[in-house]
Write a structure and sequence with these properties.
Oligomer: single chain
Strand content: 15-25%
Shape: globular
Number of strands: 15
Number of helices: 13
Helix content: 25-40%
Radius of gyration: 20 Å
Distance between the termini: 18 Å
Largest sheet: 7 strands, mixed
Order of helices and strands: EEEHEEHHEHEHHEHEHEHEHEHEHEHE
Length: 351
């Protein structure tokens, strides 16, 4: 089969690799569509993992084969593939910190080499633990593979919205109106809150308004805090969701978030970035800082429901489609977006 193999920093090799062999409890999925995620891009462009590996994890496809011990799944079923499932019984899982679970981190879908997601290949193998514990979700007949590929990123964003306890009637500032920020805008609106977005690119601000943001601003506007306070009866927003790894965005969030509000880090910052802050700002204003990493098993069914029943418009996020052979070009486009670049999808198979 063909696969895009990570051979080193910024080195993707489109090559032939063996189709993964199945154990009795495993499932083989023919990949049809896989989303290009910022985490994939970081893994490709920075020395974070030893090569060779095959990345890609926002995967939708068709079951091609099942192991002899697999029950409930059969070839031909259209499925979303979730690349991590927690153990459900360790201390982290019992506290619903599923993404901290060692099983969650260590067991992943694979197309060969060290298991690393495997979606950037024609076939991906789903380990028995993931098959047995809800890591395959059947795609309804009226849902496309493209739409289904959004279940995993929707889960990640939904987890953050839930963790921040966004409530109807609240106002939420979303910093960054790329694919993730726009998904936040739609989810915030879906849960009955008002979204305000910021971005440096005017077309993304317009897109945010189209998808339901009450207002959208350039973060370089020196009057931004005043404008946001004017929209919130002088208080500031209830919650800020940081969807860009920017220290300037964080300090802007402090200026725009009300006393007793929350700031949630969603985007991963470079390790060398340090943000100095006077702790008395948090103490006196009772600002809660929190982080949200990866997906949550707890919201998996809700994420699928939101996508499958079109409660948010994931089609509106798609701007570019590349064949698997052009993954390097897709990464370049994501790193250097045009004004009309939003979500990039990789088409692997027909259909």
């Amino acid at each position: 089969m063909k696969a895009q193999v990570f051979r080193g920093v910024n080195q993707l090799s489109y090559e032939d690799v063996p189709v993964p062999e199945l154990a009795a409890d495993e499932v083989l999925v023919q990949v049809r569509v896989v989303g290009l995620c910022q985490s994939d891009i970081k893994k490709i462009r920075y020395p974070l993992y030893e090569p060779p590996r095959i990345f890609g994890h926002e995967t939708a496809g068709v079951i091609a084969a099942v192991g002899d011990a697999v029950r409930g799944w059969q070839p031909g079923q259209r499925v979303v593939v979730l690349h991590h499932i927690p153990c459900m019984h360790c201390g982290y899982c019992l506290n619903e910190n599923y993404s901290m679970c060692e099983v969650y981190k260590s067991i992943s879908t694979t197309a060969g080499f060290a298991p690393s997601g495997g979606g950037f290949a024609e076939y991906v193998k789903v380990p028995g633990h993931i098959v047995q514990h809800g890591g395959l979700i059947e795609i309804p007949d009226d849902v496309t593979f493209e739409q289904a590929s959004f279940v995993e990123p929707t889960n990640c964003c939904l987890k953050a919205v839930k963790k921040a306890q966004v409530q109807p009637g609240q106002t939420v500032l979303v910093t960054g109106a790329g694919p993730i920020g726009l998904m936040f805008v739609m989810l915030v609106k879906y849960f009955g809150a008002r979204a305000i977005a910021t971005d440096l690119i005017p077309s993304r601000l317009e897109k945010a308004r189209q998808l339901g943001a009450e207002a959208a601003f350039d973060p370089r506007d020196p009057d931004l805090p005043a404008k946001i306070h004017a929209l919130t009866q002088g208080m500031g927003v209830d919650t800020t969701l940081l969807a860009v790894p920017s220290d300037k965005a964080f300090f802007q969030a402090l200026d725009c978030t009300r006393k007793g509000g929350k700031i949630l880090f969603f985007a991963e910052f470079p390790d060398e970035v340090e943000i100095p802050i006077n702790p008395n700002i948090l103490y006196r204003r009772e600002i809660d800082l929190m982080g949200s990493y990866s997906s949550s098993y707890k919201v998996q069914s809700l994420a699928a429901d939101i996508v499958f029943n079109r409660r948010i418009d994931v089609d509106a996020l798609v701007s570019n489609r590349f064949p698997l052979s052009d993954l390097a070009a897709a990464v370049d486009r994501a790193v250097s977006p045009t004004p009309d670049t939003f979500k990039i999808l990789i088409n692997v198979g027909q259909g």
